[in-house]
Amino acid sequence: xxxxxxxxxxxxxxxxxxxxxxxxxxxxxxxxxxxxxxxxxxxxxxxxxxxxxxxxxxxxxxxxxxxxxxxxxxxxxxxxxxxxxxxxxxxxxxxxxxxxxxxxxxxxxxxxxxxxxxxxxxxxxxxxxxxxxxxxxxxxxxxxxxxxxxxxxxxxxxxxxxxxxxxxxxxxxxxxxxxxxxxxxxxxxxxxxxxxxxxxxxxxxxxxxxxxxxxxxxxxxxxxxxxxxxxxxxxxxxxxxxxxxxxxxxxxxxxxxxxxxxxxxxxxxxxxxxxxxxxxxxxxxxxxxxxxxxxxxxxxxxxxxxxxxxxxxxxxxxxxxxxxxxxxxxxxxxxxxxxxxxxxxxxxxxxxxxxxxxxxxxxxxxxxxxxxxxx
Length: 375
Known about the structure:
Structural class: mainly alpha
Distance between the termini: 47 Å
């Protein structure tokens, strides 16, 4: 099922039914209350769903007593994450200028676009979501167009510094949404198969390329790890990543690559527990590649973009703190605005902590000889 197009369709259908039947049945007092709190409730719920997904989005790769319950929760939140943000944007699209009670409501528009980018811990719930990346790609332009149209339409409502504060958040939201589409594209079956046989050098996280180069074709894995200066306590990650790269074609229904010497994989001296741990880590690498943004974020371009976007959000928060006292906005709207900005900063920092503390993150840091990791 196409989640992207069905989300937009059900959101528009919900708004039509709501306007045609539900709102007409309300009294004037209830209608006024609904109009005042509808968007505010949707924005807060959208942020709440993002907070739930960032914490439980990767729980699918774990098994346990409550794994089915957690998986069901993630599935529901995954569906509602896009739906709530789309309904909120569509509601703004159909709102008349006289119905906007505060300019801060328009300031929230780019945050909805940011929520559509989704948390880093889950970009796809199933493999079929990755195959639908072209429709998510067109959905990206559709949602960006709606958000920009809404913002430009209500730009003249009140021209203040607040209008310009949303621009960095727009850039952040577009970047996050584009990352999601790119992650889906990279995890699609066709692209995944092509990545098995790269024609150019991969980014520095992949230590296999020099290991398999003609000049080092006979070099043992342990000798290679010692040569590039990997500490003993992190060698297990590099071994697991190496084996993951070797056997990755099997996950794409491809034949195993033919190496000059592959027997070392089966001749390593290790206990049964260590072997199962190695397989567990390899499956973790596979999960991250298929269902998360981690391989996209932990790259040179990804790190630069994250630093820029985080600085944009923090700068917007500081600027809002400065100009807030100059305008008489509703305390509720001000509180929601702070909640959205602080929530965006928290989600970004928390995501970075999760990335860097994961096996993939530690592997990336040790492969780069990162100064931060040494500290």
